[in-house]
Amino acid sequence: MKEKLFITLLATVLCIAAAYPQARIILPDSSQITTNPDSLDLLPRRPLSRDTLDPSRESSSHLDHLLNDHSAEADSLQRLTRMTLWKLDARTASRLPAISDTLLHNYQQTTLPDGQSVAMGFLAPLGSPAFSKIFFDREETETFIFNNAYTHYLKDPEKLLFVNTRIPYSRLNYHRAGAKQTREERFEARLTSNFGKSLNVGLDVDLINARGFYNSQAVKHNNFSLFGNYLSDRLEGHAFLNLGSLTNFENGGVTDEQFITDPDSVQQSFTSKDIPVKFTDTWNAVRNNRFFLSGRYNLGYRELPTDSLHKGMGRFVPVASIGVSSQYTQQHRRFLSYDTALVNVDGVQMQKIDQFYANRYYNGAVDDSIRYTSFRNSFSLSLREGFKEWVKFGLTAFLEYDLRNYSMRDSVGPGYMHHRESAVTIGGLLNKQQGDNLLFNLRADLGVLGVNLGEFRAMGDVETGFDIAGKRTTLSAEAYIKNLRPKYLQEHYYSKYFRWDHDLGDIRRVYVGGRVLIPFTNTTLSVGVENLQNFIYYDQERNIAQEGGSVQVLTARVDQNIHLGVFNWDNQVVYQTSSNQQVIPLPTISLYSNMYLKTKIVNELTLQLGVDAHYHTRYFVPGYEPALLQFYNQREREIGNYPIATVYANMHLKQTRFFVMFYNVAPMVLKPSEYFSLPGYPVNPFVLKLGVSVNLHN
User: Fold this and answer.
1) Cα separation, 386 vs 65, whole angstroms
2) How far lies 253's CA from each of 122, 184, 268, 270, 600, in Å?
3) Contact of 342 with 350, CB cutoff 8 Å
4) Cystine design at 366: which of 60, 361, 422, 496 (Cβ 3.0–4.6 Å)?
5) Are 652 and 99 spatial neighbours (Cβ–Cβ below 8 Å)?
6) What is the pLDDT of residues 208-251, one digit of tens each?
7) Overall number of domains in the chain
8) H-assigned helices in 403-477
9) Pure H helices in 345-406
10) Which CATH number covers residue 138?
11) Phi, psi angle pair for 366, to nearest 5°
12) pTM of the full predicted structure?
């Protein structure tokens, strides 16, 4: 009842505001409609390859020009401080251009697990394990394989936005949903300031506290990051420290899906907390501590000014650079359960949680833990692009040494099993990122010593374009060839319920894809195909498996944005096909559709009012195994053909963004309700969500 009254009140307020005689409605410029694949940026951006690293665009003068140009800004907030932002290549210590995340529209979508991709699989609460159902959105498997489930929430130096700002900058984000018993909230803060022209220091805080709308499904994340950089003509330095902990209670999924699909058949009043689940008092905890430090010395000369009055004050032109970086990582995963009440299963007494697993490799309560450390050091040499007119490209070479240590509970012998390994990698980058007609990036690396001996990656992307009637049509292509060594934890793993020792073969991947951006129709077309041999996955028995043959994956995608006055309709449609659905299961069609009105009221308030939905066709979605913290291929339950929809009002007023959203509204009109993301894991039920983001410049 409260939700219906709120919707009525909100609609009334908006109608009055639109009809008020002194109000002036300003139609948005069509150029402000995004062409980004995820519809999260206000202005179009030139697409970058997933594997692109761009060390040639890091000179201070070039970054300042690129990142402070108003045509490349996310919104008007950057104009107040003319901040320079960039990301970092951890191997070469090179700076890569980036833009602020102060987007004006679709802000509400970024606060949802669904918003990370066109189609997502997740457990329901914010911060829970998740993966993209779009194959080419998935990243390579990490060495510490338990991080893959949290890839959207982890902090590392290559994801961080480093800053140089003239005025101290702060950003505060907060959003929440649900009543006290089921409350889900996230608080994010960034505080950063320059101390002089060259030194910047900042602090990032990211806190998630989700009590869960279903029993035994609480999630808690605590991430604290300290970062800084020092920039001068000759010296560049970056530092990053992150202390992170992620904990989520595990319930194994609901045991009776009729509570969702046919609640009337239950014949009793219940809440989502009353739906029975497999087990309780069980949780996964993952710790990530990262310490990163890099430095680079630039070799070059000063370009003497033509004005004799400013003799000796010429611009510094970097010619080459020497870079070093060091990163120490501590990671720990623990799976623990106190769900040890004895139950009788087919005449056998066992702990309650044990009944869901075929094997038990040690007695007592489950308490699996593994520790991993990595100490990675790299050295690089770079030749800069464009320091002379005849230097048409940049060139970088690097050498990296990685020392890794593992310690895990031995499920056969007493105590812990220890393992140490090392990896030596050499590589290089060749790129051209200046000019209008042809841009390219080529990157290769090769394992020459240690466990990654013979591992290699060769990746490249190329872009060109042409202007028609003052608008630029962009064509781009990318390809890679990879030979990847299996991770240690994919070959050796010991725990209470799972144990294996395998000698797996190298994974071979060959990919080629292309993309065209048509500005006249706000259309982006892309297609990609990949051949995978010796692909590693988790089978129906939840054990590690390897497909010896080849599997082909084909993806075609259309991003189409329609704009008619204040009416907008953004669509992202992805077609996927896998030659072996039992190895790489994929939905045939996935789409995200967002229909909304977008305008300005009295020249101050930007208003976006709309409804959106994520949808994919029915297929055997991978299941989730808490004891492994992995997603596995199941063949028992198909999921799909049901939208996860929201109704929202998203607003921007000066330096503040805020939204009101009703999540999962489809069950109000569609029966039966099948809002499952994974087998046994429904998404959050219908709920009101509020959020605000404030940018402070002082």
Assistant:
1) 15
2) 12, 19, 21, 17, 44
3) yes
4) 496
5) no
6) 999 999 999 999 999 999 999 999 999 999 999 999 999 999 99
7) 1
8) none
9) none
10) 2.40.170.20
11) -70, 130
12) 0.86
